[in-house]
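Bug #77: duplicate submission created two jobs. Keeping one. Sequence:
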Amino acid sequence: MYQILEHKTIGQNIHKMVIKAPLIAREAKPGQFVVIRSYENGERIPITICEKDPQMGSITLYIQEVGKSTAKIGLLKKGDHILDIAGPLGNPAEIKKVGTVVTIGGGVGCAITYPETRAYKEAGNYLIGIMGFRNVSFKILEDEMKKVCDELYITTDDGSYGQKGFVSDKLKEIISSGEKIDEVLVIGPAIMMKVISDITREYKIKTIASLNSIMVDGTGMCGACRVEVGGKTKFACVDGPEFDAHEVNFSLLMKRASMYSEEERLSYEKFKNER
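Kept job's structure:
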């Protein structure tokens, strides 16, 4: 079992948890994730590692309540325990010095772009960060991103913070300004990643996306996380989670992601009513 060392609710239904996991903290690299299960019959949930502290033996996760299992995790307090954490899983991000990099995070996806943005900066790149949120109540990691970005822009759908609009609007502005972009990393809702990849494809800008497909075991055995990349079937857990965004079949990804949406909604509603 894995003890929760710190639990803060930040943003709307978003939980920052620092968890004791020394072996994972020692081995984890940017882009990798863990699969957590908070109770015996709980769902296995993949969560990307945002930060690690090998000396403390801890990892930091950002978990958004979107269903019953994540809501139950949100009820846990400092000192409580997570039943299972498997990881680090997936391939580390391939980060090297390429020049100017734009990292784009949507919502809680910013908890994934942050460690990679930091790694890109440490590799000697010029970093432009774009963070997009539904509204100001969902905003996370702004201060952390400011420390590792040469330029940082925040958008909100309703204009309650930063620039009103979408991350794609800001990216178009940056491209139109004549800024030479060597690489784009985009992580967030599938539709957002699709829109960004459509824009960068037109300008032939290398673009990497981290895919958030349905996942069960996280080791390539179940096949639940299969995605189509370059016309071939890949497993997000062992072949990814990061892929060339221009080769991803986002339409299929979105279709598969919604397979159990009605069951998830009913389970979540029942749980909330019981509470």
